[in-house]
Amino acid sequence: MLSDIFLFHENSRTDPWKYPQDRTSALIEKGAFAVADGITRTVLAEKGLYPSEFQGGAVAEIFVNRFTELSKDFTASEGGMNDLLHEVNKSVYEFNVSIGFDYDNLKSNYWLGECVGGGCIIRDRILYYGILEDTYLNVLRGQKLEDQVKMKTQIMESYRYGRELANSTGREFEEIWAVELRNNPEAKDDAGNRVGWGSFNGQKEASEFWQVGSIQLQDDDIILLVTDGALGLFGNEPELSTAQEIVYRTGQNTGTKPQVNLSAEISNLIKSGKTSLESEKTIFRAKWSSTKA
Question: What superkingdom heads the lineage (predicted)?
Answer without folding.
Answer: Bacteria
